[in-house]
Amino acid sequence: MMEVEQPYVEEQGEAVEEMEVTVGYQTLDCLAEHGIAANDLQKLQDAGYHTVESIAHATTRKLSEVKGISEAKVTKLKDIVKSMVAMDFKTAADALEDRKSLVTLTTGSVELDKLLEGGIETGSITEVFGEFRTGKTQLCHTLCVTCQMSVTEGGAEGKAIYIDTEGTFRPKRLEEIAERFGMDPAVALENVAYARAHNSEHQMELLKMAAAIMSQDRYALIVVDSATALFRTDYTGRGELSERQMQLGQFLRQLTRLAEEFGVAVFLTNQVVANPDGMSFAKDSTKPIGGNIIAHACTTRLRLRKGRGENRICTIFDSPTLPEADAQFAVSSKGVCDATE
Question: 303 pairs with which residues across the strands?
Fold first, then answer.
């Protein structure tokens, strides 16, 4: 979870409040000071572990599977990281204080931000689903730009990672959105790391690469558009359903780990399928794919549907804190913006 520090600086005799984003992870270099050999650290990095937190959160069995890391070394690692990462109980009052410093990313629409009580939350997974042409990908593009803005403007002063599974990423759109927010388009594009995933295995591999690059710089957002498309085509029929759900669960677990370790906002898009159980005359007879696996992994779930003209309607489908409500926004050439009359 990204946190905000609020130091005060004197400017022209007045106290002016500044906001800075602090990063809450420790790189593996810290373990070298505790006697862990450099070649062992390299083996851990090759296996996708880039922070002290990733070692602390991994099971002993998973760490033992890393080539060249013995059980004795795993035990030593676990003992070291236990003193470096807080994993015990804390009071609800402390948890509340932690949440007060939570950073949210503006969506580009005032009404949508109000619905989300500030915007897209960092440190957790937000899923958005809906039919085609409801604004899912436009929202992804807008967030890639807004996450780079200062905290006071609704950003998190970090870079973005975009994993594209459907071939819908358009850098030209990022340029237009950056111009709208008064940013240098060239700089905005440099701050977005993009990869095209070609199959579900490659999609998993990209998360390892994402962990590596996030440990070297400040990132605020991971976008996966769409999270389920490749799993849906790589595993077909009822015979492969359990295997698909298991692999999808592993992918979502990795995303949760990255959200917690690096404090980034994870933003997923999801496809929908016609619900045969639903009444044909119901307002919305579609349901998101992925079943309970994706429902439990995502903290906030948003449903998008088409409105009049370029307007779209966003509904809070599931959230531990937000009440069920609607908000209207519009999709334009400059990304997500306020609804038009």
Answer: 129, 315
pTM exceeding the 0.85 threshold for the entire prediction: yes
How far apart (Å, rounded) are the C-alpha atoms in residues 144 and 207?
17
Token digits for 195? 């990869």
CA separation for the pair 269, 261 (Å, rounded): 21
- The CA-atom distances, in angstroms, between 51 and each of 42, 44, 82, 201 are 12, 10, 13, 23
All residues at 6 or more sequence positions from 251 whose CB lies less than 8 Å from its CB, including other chains: 200, 203, 204, 207, 227, 231
**H runs (alpha helix) in 153-312:** 171-180, 185-190, 200-214, 229-234, 241-262, 291-297
Please give the C-alpha separations between residue 238 and each of 4, 228, 245, in angstroms, as whole numbers: 47, 16, 11
CA distances from 201 to 58, 127, 212, 252 (A): 20, 21, 18, 13
- Per residue in 242-278, pLDDT tens? 999 999 999 999 999 999 999 999 999 999 888 766 5
Whole-number Å distance between alpha carbons of 82 and 96: 24
Q: Closest Cα to residue 85, out of 34, 146, 152?
A: 34
Whether 21 has a pLDDT exceeding 90, the answer reads: no
Q: Based on C-alpha coordinates, what's the Rg of the chain?
A: 21
Alpha helices in 67-216 (DSSP H): 71-82, 92-100, 110-115, 136-146, 171-180, 185-190, 200-214
State how far the Cα of 212 lies from the Cα of 206, in Å rounded to an integer: 10
**Helix (H, G, I), strand (E, B), or coil: what is residue 113?**
helix
* Residue written as token pair 């069920």: 324
List all residues 6 or more positions away from 180 whose beta carbon is below 8 Å from its beta carbon. Answer: 334, 335
Looking at the DSSP bridge assignments, the partners of residue 234 are none
Look-up: residue for tokens 């998993």? 204
